[in-house]
Amino acid sequence: MAVSKVERLMNLVICLLSTRQFLTAERIRASVAGYEDSVSDEAFGRMFERDKNELRDLGVPLETGQLSRFSTTEGYRINRDRYELPDIDLARDEAAAVAVAVQLWESPELTSAAQSAMLKLRAAGVQVDPEHSPAAVTSIPARSRGSEPALGKLLSAIDAGKSVRFTHRASPTAEFRTRTVEPWAVVTHSGRWYLVGHDVDRGDVRTFRLSRIGDDVEAFGRAGSVRKPDGVDPAAVVARAAGTGDVAGTARVWVRDGRAEEIRRLGTAAETRTVAGVTGTVVELSVRSWEWVARVVAGHGADAIVLAPDDLREQVIRILTVVADRDGVGGVSGVGGTADRDGAVISS
User: Where is the WYL domain (predicted)?
Assistant: First the structure.
């Protein structure tokens, strides 16, 4: 498959930026994808001259020099000091946009071509500078790369204004369930990707972590039928769901002495209280996400008991009931605990 002119020029820039040494035209021809299509030396010479002129017209500081002081052979490289941009002051929203672009560029999908070019350069004997190479892949957690299979399909559906159907699981150990969503946006938060949209099945605005969406995303419906409502900030929706938005309220949770350190770290000790003969501490929590706090409390079983508010207590009961039914325990006995306002145990 023939390499386009734009791709060839990009490969040439990567090649000349990836080394401090001057490279001969012959080595560039053997190393840069796109020049192998030249049918003769004359054809390559004409193509290479046009490419050099075009790079210079674009402002790329292409230099010509001898390979060494003992050689008269001419070579080429890009002056990196002149090529790199000076420090730029970005506003908060501009910095966020650049960060997202960097994460996408560093994803496996978009770095495969650059990696291939770097391997070819090394194989040809070119001394690649890994620290400053524009094609070097940063070792960042996979979760912060745009590597989820669903990403491309979801972005296409959002651009087309179509609904999507996919399988999703609420946690790494939960079963996949089919969801039908009117997608509004894909945003990043704390290094993770989230889909924000209207969940048709639940009739509410929901967020879905992309790493928990299956690769079976299917767009359907009339193009342009889905659009984000005015006034909705997808980033704020994700922040609230992830528990980092504005404080939504306060909860009081009893924790057994020596246990549930995670809950202790999240709040402030208010008083010591004995519940069902067990000594513990009442912790007051500032809650940003009721759903997240409910999962944290339920995860500590009988070592953490919700005293208030009622809605959080009921949410924990629902979580424990689902776990008990799944494991065949029967009720919530032995799985966890909740309590009324006076600390009397309802179930434990």
Answer: 150-214
Q: Among 241, 262, 287, identify where a domain stops.
A: 241
- The reply to whether 13 and 90 lie within a common domain is yes
- Distances 179 to 37, 229, 304 between C-alpha atoms, Å: 48, 20, 32
CATH code of the domain containing 200: 2.30.30
Query: 253 and 228, same structural domain?
Result: no
Task: Count the Cβ atoms, other than its own, within 10 Å of residue 274.
Answer: 11
C-alpha distance from residue 251 to each of 219, 237, 268, 283, 312 (Å):
40, 21, 11, 8, 8
With a pLDDT cut of 70, the percent of the chain lying above it is 71
Does pTM surpass 0.70?
A: no
CA angle (235, 238, 239) in 5-degree steps = 85
Residue 140 falls within a domain, yes or no? no
Which residue range(s) make up the domain with 15?
5-123
10-residue stretch averages of pLDDT, the chain, 348 residues long: 76 84 87 82 89 84 83 84 68 63 54 56 56 41 48 86 92 84 86 87 89 90 92 84 68 93 88 92 87 87 92 89 70 43 38
Among the candidates 123, 158, 186, a domain finishes at: 123
- Concatenate the DSSP letters of all residues of 123-184 into one string: HTT----TTT-TTPPP---GGGSS--THHHHHHHHHHHT-EEEEEE-SSTTSPPEEEEEEEE
pLDDT digits (tens, 9 = 90+) for 243-264: 655 566 889 999 999 998 889 8
Work out how many domains the chain is built from and give that number: 3
109 CB contacts (<8 Å, ≥6 apart)? 146, 147, 152
